[in-house]
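Bench notes, afternoon.
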Amino acid sequence: MKKSTIWILVVLMAVTFIGLLCMQIFYMHNMLKMRYDQFSVGARRSLTAVSLRLAQDEARYFLEEKVSDVSSSSVYAQYLGAPTPQLGGVRYRFTTSTGLEADINIKGDPSEITRLQSSTDMSANPYQSARAEVRDRYLQQKNVLDEVIINIISQSTARPIFERADTITIRNYLRQELDTLGLTIPFEFAVLNRAGTPLYRSIGYNEAASKGESAFVQTLFPHDPRDRQTFLKVYFPTKNDYIYSSISFMFPTIAFTLILLVVFICTIIIAFRQKKLTEMKNDFINNMTHEFKTPISSISLAAQMLNDQSVRKSPTMLQQISTVINDETKRLRFQVEKVLQMSMFDRQKATFKLAEVDANSAIYNIVNTFKLKVEKYGGHITASLDALDAIVNVDEMHFTNVIFNLLDNAVKYRDPDRPLELTVSSRDLPDRRLRIEIADNGIGIRKDDVKRIFQKFYRVNTGNRHDVKGFGLGLAYVKKIIEEFQGRISVESELGRGTKFIITLPLIDE
């Protein structure tokens, strides 16, 4: 698949996921707002209902107490024709011109009832007199009710708020009204005066918590004088949990979307890595072909020369051809061995013959062997092996290959404009570890490449230089070996200034 096609798919999927997440977040935000509004409306409606019920309770209290007092002192009843007022009032029975029968009881002031009994107009026209008396009774009862209402208004505020609205009554009314609206959550409340000072409160009431958005305030007895008004303040400690639980079904959908997004990102990363790995493997195959082609061609040419009679008659030529065949065979075997070693590491089948090795001695032997190759290119190599304790537990063959690979890279990537300077050093670290440094003054490595040089098949771009060949396995092999020895390897490099590889290995405990 082309890289452009992958990028198009990435952009489309990214836009789709972002749009889906935005829609879900927008929907959840609107739903939260709606839930908060519904809760606020329900809570305020419940508080209003509680205030109304408390007002009705107070009115009922005064009606039951005061109306009985007013009626007992001013309203008496009397039967028609009785000399003194009697219970029952004035009673009329008459028949209309159309044949309808009426039965009316009239209650009122005793003097008015007496006047009504002695009235000649009533005996002359009982129906009209009855209507007039009913109207008088209505007016008198209205006056009685007005007197009661005035009495309620004037005397109600004189009662203590604890009697007008006690804690148990308020809690019961609140619970009933909230349950009616489906708000079955705990609440706390307090009754405040006009200055905001609590007159009394519920047991769990918290002043700090009541200052948030979950608190609601309602005026108790709105008709009281302004200076004597009281307020009911209610807050819900679990309001947010209650509202969020009502939209809890949204969280799994968002979580699943995020999981899909993470999976998509991982898939894209893996796809790019696989594409890069494919490209690196293709480069590896091309490099391997060229690496194998050279020794095979040399061996093939040497074999053809052996068929020449004149060559066979010359011992010197036979010796040269034999040396070429031997060297090229070793070179071919070395390349094959390197590939096989990396294959074994991938399958976790590599075996080591660990032993106590003096790193200083091993490095010194490698430097002496490598000195001729460095001097061949006009370079110079020095060893500063200052470590007092350099006994490490390693496989000597693989350890030698690691140092050899690093020195060989220094020669390959030398700067042609100045003589090669190679330095190999060792020193002790405080935490019973050995530090080995291999530094050169070569072409250096770019920062982007420094992060990737230990990847398998990765080869640093050498610009216009075409004499540097390889599989891109050398540094990957080095890193793998050092890690198998419980060590670490790092690199410091600057383009045009050279490169330094730093190896740290644990020393054998005394």
